[in-house]
Structure formats: C-alpha cells, structure tokens
Amino acid sequence: MTDPIQTRSNENQLVINASLQEVWDAITKGELLRRWFGNDAKDATEGGRFFVSWHEHGAIDSPVTVFEPLKHLQFGDMMPGSPVPFATDIYLEAHGGATLVRIVASGFGTDSKWDSEFDAITKGWGYFIRNLRFYLEHFKGKSCRTSGFPLRTNLPRADAFAAYAKALGLDPAKLTLGEPSTGKVEGLGKLEVRPDVFIPPGHLGLILGEKQDALLRIESFESGKGGTWAYVMGLDWDEANPRLDAIDKALKKLAP
C-alpha cells in the first residue's frame, strides 16, 4: 500500500454584509467578477469554466468541478510539477443577515520549491476576498475601472517596498493597518489612504480617497535575476477620477 501524497492548503475567510445570493452572483457572473476581480471575466456555470483575466498579465482559466448554488464553487486543474490537482474552493454560509465566505486553495506540495507559490496564492486571495467585501458592502451594482501592470525594479525586496510607499508620498514606518494616512502623488496632489493589507516587505493594500472609493494592491517578490518584481492592481469605482493614472505613472518611474 502506497503512502498518501502529502499536500498543503491555505484558507482566507471573511464575513461580508451581503446576502448569499448577492455573494454567489458576484463570484459566478462575469459582469460582476469584472467589478472586483479582474479586467475580463465570463460566467461560471456548472460543467463550464471559471475564467478571469488581467489582460496580458495572466488569467485563471480552469474547469468548474463543483457548482452548488449559494453554497460551494470549485475550480481547478493540474499545475506543472504538482502531485495532485490544484483546486480553489469558495464556500458560502449564512451568517445572520450576512455571509461567511471561505476561500481554500489546495494541492500545494510540501517541499520548499512550493513555498513561494503557496505564499503568493495565500496573500493573493487575501487581497481578492477583501476586494469582494469592499465591492459588495460599498459599491454593489456599480461598475469599476481596473488597472494592472507588472513592475520590475533593481532594488532588494525590502528596499522596493519602501520605494513603492515613497512614490505615493508615504512613509512605511508610519503606516498602520486600518489607520488613515496622507500621501502625495505627482500630478494628483494629496492622497488619503487607509491600509487594509500591510505585510512588509511584500504586500501593501490601500483603500484610497476621502470617500474610500478605490483600492490599490501591490504584491512583490524577489526576482530570480536579482531585484524585485511586483504586480500592481488598482480598482476605482469613480471611473472619471484620474487617481489610477497618476499612481500608475508614479510607480512605473521605479522601473530600471
């Protein structure tokens, strides 16, 4: 008898002040996925595929393997080098008048070569589950402008994190999770921010604006060629606001 294959999983969960139906629609309807997740998306259906893309910067395009309306959505596929299929499970549960959302990613190997992938997926879903909550609790039914781009610097990861903050007129030593702060961006001026993800030196998530109507996510990794690469994503429910353009421009100046 062969020993079972050892794998590991990660989980993110939040209570969202929205109904089961509202959350289910937001994770299965392409039009709504585009309002909190990616630049493009299609409806997820039973026996179909889960598709979300960030234009030329990557996509999720996996078969839907469990489709239980208002309860459980699963999608996944084999990943190169993975001993078992990789799966993402999204579980919904009524929680008073709100909904408990649990996102479980599984199928990671236990050896060290999977550590960076494991960490990236854990933190990535940490961003996206907060995007989902922010959208449903504040901007439900409203379309969103999304921007995203990779950013490469020659700086070590810790120095790159400080540089991202400095480009936004912020001092990372003075940032506190959940506490308001004020930055300054060239071409935009004063920028009110409130960190909702703050895990130096790799992960910075900010709620933007006096109306708190935009999000910025920066996720960075050490590059195998030296320096640091990051993926920057912005979501803005005030589509006419120039914030994202100014922020994109300021951060791209860090590229070599």
Pick out its properties:
256 residues, alpha+beta, 2 domains, 7-stranded antiparallel sheet, 5 helices, 13 strands
Can you describe what's shown?
It is a single chain. The protein is of the alpha+beta class. It folds into two domains: 132 residues, 2-Layer Sandwich (Alpha-D-Glucose-1,6-Bisphosphate, Chain A, domain 4), CATH 3.30.530; 108 residues, START domain (Alpha-D-Glucose-1,6-Bisphosphate, Chain A, domain 4), CATH 3.30.530. The chain is built from five helices and 13 strands. The strands form two sheets. Strands 1-7-6-5-4-3-2 form a seven-stranded antiparallel beta sheet. A six-stranded antiparallel beta sheet has the order 8-13-12-11-10-9. The longest helix is centred in the middle third of the chain and has 24 residues. It is globular, with a radius of gyration of 19 Å. The relative contact order is 0.15.
List the helices and strands and how they pair.
Blueprint lengths: L6 E10 L3 H9 L1 H4 L6 E2 L7 E5 L5 E10 L3 E6 L8 E10 L2 E12 L5 H24 L6 E9 L3 H11 L13 E5 L3 E11 L3 E6 L5 E9 L5 E9 L6 H10 L4
Antiparallel strand pairs: 1-7, 2-3, 3-4, 4-5, 5-6, 6-7, 8-13, 9-10, 10-11, 11-12, 12-13
